[in-house]
Design a protein that fits this description.
single chain; mainly alpha; 9 helices; about 85% helix; elongated
Length: about 250
């Protein structure tokens, strides 16, 4: 019996040693990547479509540039505020569910313990195996609460700085993306020439961004690049065509 226990501890020590030596290369900053993707994709597409639409109305590069910069500023503020409010909502939801789960552990501990057993059984853990785990969690209320939040509700504790970080990331990404299609209008005074340069520059930027997005999100990079550029091209073409259509009526 003693030998079996020693072997068990020995196996556990070996497993822990292997765990420390093993480095899993996962990309963990998924929330930051999501914010960057949201900001850059909208930043590249919306000002691009706006500039193309104004170019279709035969206005000067200076007017397009002023309108584009105003849109980038307003868009960055709007997108950043949206990201902030979304993150704050997630934080408030987590706090509400945390309080509710905490009250349930105190009021109905047997039901909550049964829920732990049910969760573990879904992972193939037998009754004689999850019994000690349930008892261990009941002796540690904080660990029990953390377990229920993560495995019953699927909620991770949000970073207190998440809302501000999300707002700043989205806004900055939007500005970076939004300045790309406007750059030709800063250098070329003739709008009809500037729009062609803007199309080329923005499509290349969309292809690069789409490829990078596909790489970091684990999807097919070339497919992602094509889809991103295609969406941007459709948006700008629609804006340009609508501007030309309305101009024909005047």
């Amino acid at each position: 019996m003693r030998s079996d226990q020693d072997n068990g501890y020995g196996d556990l020590e070996k497993q822990m040693l292997v765990l420390h030596e093993h480095e899993e290369k996962h990309f963990m900053s998924s929330e930051i990547v999501r914010d960057v993707i949201l900001g850059v994709s909208d930043g590249l597409t919306v000002p691009f479509a706006l500039a193309a639409g104004l170019s279709g109305a035969d206005v000067s590069s200076s007017i397009i540039l002023i309108a584009g910069i105003a849109e980038v500023a307003a868009g960055a503020i709007s997108m950043g505020l949206g990201g902030y409010l979304a993150a704050k909502s997630e934080e408030d939801h987590y706090k509400k569910e945390l309080k509710r789960e905490q009250d349930e552990i105190i009021a109905v501990p047997d039901i909550e313990a049964a829920e732990v057993a049910e969760i573990l059984s879904q992972y193939g853990v037998e009754a004689h195996e999850y019994g000690p785990v349930v008892n261990a969690l009941r002796r540690n209320p904080q660990a029990w609460l953390d377990f229920m939040m993560k495995f019953e509700l699927g909620l991770d504790k949000p970073d207190p700085m998440r809302a501000l970080q999300s707002a700043m990331t989205i806004a900055f990404s939007y500005v970076c993306g939004g300045l790309v299609p406007l750059l030709p209008y800063m250098l070329i005074p003739v709008a009809t020439k500037a729009v062609l340069a803007s199309v080329v520059v923005t499509i290349v930027a969309l292809l690069i961004f789409g490829f990078a997005k596909g790489h970091f999100t684990g999807t097919q990079p070339f497919k992602s690049a094509f889809q991103t550029a295609f969406i941007g091209a459709i948006a700008s073409t629609a804006a340009y065509s609508i501007a030309k259509l309305f101009q024909s009526f005047h």
